[in-house]
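Write out this protein's structure.
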Amino acid sequence: QVQLVESGGGMVQTGGSLRLSCAASGFTFSTYTMGWFRQAPGKEREFVATIRLIGGTYYADSVKGRYTISRDDAKKTLYLQMNSLKPEDTAVYYCARARSNHYSSSYYYSEARYDYWGQGTQVTVSA
């Protein structure tokens, strides 16, 4: 069965860095577009970044220039490098598998485009 397991969350001070990982199993990882979302307390889950099969990375404006999404298909692992963290980045971060591959980047901004989700990992940024 499809499984996505996030790790790497924690507490960090403003300006610090964290790297999240998402270990995938139960499907052919290399053939799927993957994404990261986050949900802050009292807010809806929001798009963070996505990476397509060959290159093609897209980011929310709020994280552009600070976050980097990457993948290692041999290890079946998705990553999110987060730098220059801010208190407003505090959230539970989720990795997700896209239902299909699409030419338009905006296709991936909606969580409805994803069919499997990890359990999430908490990231807390203190002021």
